[in-house]
Amino acid sequence: MIAALLAQAWSAPTIDWHAIAPELVLIVGINLVLLIDLWLDDARKWAMATLTGFVLLGAVIPVVTLAVLGGDVRDAIFDGRYVIDEYALILKALFLLVGYVVVLMSQNELEEGGYYQGEFYVLLLVSILGMVMMASSRDLMSVFVALELLSIPAYMMAAWRKRDVKSNEAGVKYYLLGVFASGVLLYGMSLLYGTTGTTKLVDIGRALSGDLSGMQVLAVVFVISGFAFKISAVPFHTWAPDTYEGAPTPVTAFLSVASKAAGFVALLTVLYLGLYGAEEVHGPFIWAMAALTMTVGNVVALRQTNIVRMLAYSSVSQGGFILMPLAVMSTSAAESALRAVVIYLLIYAFSNLGAFAVIIAVARKTRSGEISSFGGLMSYAPGLGVLMTIFLASLAGIPPLGIWIAKLQAFRALIDAGSNAAYVLALIAAVNTVIAAGYYMRVLRQIWMSPVPDGDTTRITAPSSIWLALGISAGGTVLLGVLPGLVLRFADLPDLTGALGL
Amino acid sequence: MQTITNDNWLLTVGTFLPLVGVLFMMFIPASDERTHKQIGIVTAAATTAIGVLTLFRFDFGHSDQLQFFVDSEWITVIKSNYTIGLDGISLPLYFLSMVVTLLVMIYTWDNMPDAGNPKSFIILMLVLQVGMAGSFIAQDLILFFVFFEVVLLPMYFMIGVWGGDDRQYASLKFFLYTMFGSALMLVAFLALFFQTGAESFSFAHLMEAGALIDRNVQIWIFAGMFVGFAVKVPMFPFHTWLPDAHTQAPTQGSVILAAILLKLGTYGFVRIAIPMLPQGAKAWAPVIGILAVIGIIYGALGCLAQTDMKRLIAFSSVAHMGFVMLGISTLTDFGINAALFGMVAHGLITGMLFFVAGSVKHRYHTLEISRLSGLLIQMPRLGWILGFAAMASLGLPGLAGFWGEFPAILSAYSPNFGLSEALFRTLMVIAAVGTVFAAGYLLWLYQRTAFGRPNPEFEQHAHAVGAGVNDDHHGADIHDVTRIEWLAWTPFLIAIVVFGVYPQLMFKVMDPAVSALVERVGAGIP
After folding, report:
1. Which pLDDT score is estimated for B419?
2. A485 in B contact zone (CB under 8 Å)
3. Which residues, other chains included, contact B483 with Cβ-Cβ below 8 Å and sequence gap of 6+?
């Protein structure tokens, strides 16, 4: 046996260093941050945020060069199980940018709260590394590893305010449900592997055609349920509001944007490459999940009085909109669906991050998360008021602000599919758009029309890093809304099979 | 469709120019109120100047063709282009939107609503103007949708921040109704796009390809658009947002709402729903006609029951838009011409009435009809203007209102494309009865407010501050029409007379475009 193995000439695989450069930069950065943090005294801990920011921006550089130089799909490394293509690159860029904005947002929060800064940024970077890997993963193993890599640090980050009971609750809830979801996912994956004999998604896709065995049906349901926890789809969403409310606000922003996007990316890749043959199973399942997610998320959001909880439920319901194209994905409109999801994730990130940045800025003064604390914001902080208006109007889907084009694409994918089920879902979504507008407008009503609570009109002093975060978010929201062509181009993957490394 | 591509910068500049003013105002502190008002007026005047230039450069001999046509890439991936153009149907409305914004801006000089903060107020009005003008020049469905939605937020804030006591309820109702309509409309737009082969969102393409869609599918798609546009018009079962929004909105908001915003709905029917889905339009025409007539009668009865002057005018809008929709539903050249004329006339007249209502409110701090009387004695000029606008509104021949209503009723005598004559003639008779109601509620309003002795409660308040027992008046200052008001109102008054005496001025611009449109619809109906 050993002799036979030895007899095979072993040659080192050729490694495309350029292709995995973003990950390498992150890994080096993580170690740097960890080490430097050890030698730095407390007075200079602020430098950690700056360093982390540079690491993230540094990792963007190879992403850009890959996008500019590499026309071809790079899948030679790891036998097509780890692929660098346009789809992966645009998502990597998204995750890195979101990470950068989150660093900007957390900087003062951590400094002033006296939290463990170095450790926080290390965990943040690790989580982002997991996301960056997720964008390239094309194998059950690498998908799972990336998912755990991005989740485990997030559990800890959610509980970062360790003297706060709510934050602890947030972390524990997130952890327990997350681990449970991982278990379900892993079980489904093992069934998939057992019945198809491979972990490579492309091969699973080929094997899963024709009639499915009972075990395969179970496997598909389990895998999707596992991901549904990550993307907080109803009925697997119950952790989200508590976790979002309890976690420090920048972490909440991170969870509701990046972590969720990573979950969607995983679901998208697995569905598109591996499970397209199981359309009869996942089609109705995701259809029901999308309809439920957007409706339940919306209806509950209407009743919230805490703005973070409201945004948590709104993010649940936005998840329903992102799921919507996936429900009709395999019928005929796979291309529209894939594009719609990617676009939605990109634009949603800007608007949602922006909304959280405003919340952080306002909470610095009001020390409150109640919607009523936004009363009269326009009268004493018109800049923040206008920005919040832009972000919330975008989330409500009003053109020409960012998310309208994402919603348009989602509707487009549905109507492109053209089935009756798709039309019904489109109508449900249309009604939901109106319900969602109801609660977004309620916040705007506070900002524009209500008196200032307690008549306290002292100015809001937000640090420059928050303003930078706001600027990036607002710029992205407005620019992508007016000229969506800028990113639609990236999501326009004419040769989809090539793009995903089939 | 032939297009003329002269002066292709004109429409883009005319539409987006207000944003330049917005940009300037953003960097000027809010406390500098005078400067903001000045910038607002200058920007609106510059925009109107471009509008006047557009009128001069417009080739009236070819008003059935799209002029100043531009077709450049915008969102290539979804096959939506920046396609704009102007023809005889959109020219009057496009120009009207500019003029109304300018006059409202002038009116604001002296009549800032109580909530203050002219900076935000004027910025919102300028943004609103971009959305309105853009909707009328868009020749691409997605572009139209974007402009159509742009007006939503500014109007929401205008009502919600600067409105009356019940403003928050009214603004939210306005917003949610419109949002619901546009969500369904968007689904319909996309369905139309895919049913025509997913090639382009341009109007020209959809008008050609839309007619080939299967009849049943057309009916469904038309249903989606119907809800979207009918909410905006508003037609009878979807009208309930309008009285609240109109009543609560500040004067400026009411005027813009009545003069332009409602027209986006009817314009959508004429420009998009009917020519693109001829068979759907034919199937829906009786429904539209019946709802329109219900709107006429219902609006009139609603008027008779009102105790608030502004709310009465708001309900009269429902009735007037009923005439417009009746004209459209006949699908005749004559009826659609009348409808388009009615849109402009209603914009001028109802806009004028809202101005008067605003000024009455400004002086008396109330619009309760029962408390107002003797306007003609206390403020003869304002009283006469109210009378003039009321006469125009009830359709007195010789004033603009007549040419919107009368031909619309007449056109129902012989509807086009084999629509049921019996039904439409019945509708015609009921609509004619509606005009009698209109005379009734308007004259009654005029009689109660303008005639008689002034209410003692308001006599000589200007000089008797503190003497009043009623704490409802805040030192009411009863004075006649001011110079700023004359400035803002005279163009309205002149236009009402000019179009009333010489309606051909507008008909001859619109008619070639309308008959081309009706011909196209006819070609699409087997």
Report:
1. 83
2. yes
3. none
Structural domain boundaries of chain B? 10-458+479-524
How many C-beta atoms lie closer than 10 Å to residue A7's C-beta? 7
Measure CA A426 to chain center. 23
B376-386 tens-digit pLDDT: 888 888 889 99
Q: What's the residue count for chain A?
A: 502
Q: For residues A222 and A101, what is the distance between their CA atoms, to the nearest angstrom? A: 34
| DSSP at A370 | B
Beta bridge partners of A124: none
**What is the spatial distance between Cα A102 and Cα A125, in angstroms, rounded to a whole number?**
11
Read off the pLDDT of residues B443-488 as tens digits, 9 standing for 90 and up: 998 988 888 888 777 765 544 444 444 444 444 577 788 888 888 8
* Contact of A448 with A359, CB cutoff 8 Å: no
Q: Which two tokens stand for residue A276?
A: 């397209």
Average pLDDT over residues B381-398: 90
Task: Tell me how far apart the alpha carbons of residues B75 and B402 are, in angstroms, rounded to a whole number.
Answer: 44
What is the rounded CA–CA span in Å between residue A116 and residue A118? 6
Q: Where are the alpha helices (DSSP H) in B365-482?
A: 375-378, 380-393, 400-411, 421-450
CA pair distance B285, B525, nearest whole angstrom: 13
On whether any CB of chain B is under 8 Å from the CB of A441, the answer is yes
What are the structural domain ranges in chain A? 275-495
Q: How far apart are CA B191 and CA A401, in angstroms?
A: 23
Q: How high is the mean pLDDT of chain A?
A: 84
CA–CA distance, A149 with A125 (Å, rounded to integer): 10
pLDDT confidence tier of residue B138, bands split at 50, 70 and 90: very high
Concatenating the DSSP letter of every residue in B82-139 gives EEEEE-TTTHHHHHHHHHHHHHHHHHHTT---TT--HHHHHHHHHHHHHHHHHHHHB-
Prediction ipTM score = 0.84
Spell out which chain B residues touch chain A, with contact meaning CB-CB distance below 8 angstroms. 30, 73-78, 117, 120, 142, 145-146, 149-150, 152-153, 156-157, 160-161, 167-168, 171-172, 175-176, 179-180, 183-184, 186-187, 190-191, 193-194, 198
A489-493 contact pairs (CB < 8 A, 24+):
A489/B77, A490/A86, A490/A90, A490/A342, A491/A90, A491/A338, A491/A339, A491/A342, A491/A343, A491/A346, A491/B77, A492/A339, A492/B77, A493/A86, A493/A87, A493/A335, A493/A338, A493/A339
Phi, psi of A95 (to 5 degrees): -60, -40
Helices (H) and strands (E) in chain B, counts: 22, 2
**DSSP letter assigned to residue A259:** I
- Give the whole-number percent of chain B exceeding pLDDT 90: 37
Concatenating the DSSP letter of every residue in B178-207 gives HHHHHHHHHHHHHHHHHHTTS---BHHHHH
Backbone angles phi, psi at B75, to 5 degrees: -115, 85
Q: For residue range B396-430, list pLDDT tens digits in order.
A: 888 988 888 888 998 888 888 888 888 999 999 99
Q: Do B146 and A449 touch (CB under 8 A)?
A: no
Nearest-Cα distance to chain B for A398, in Å, is 7
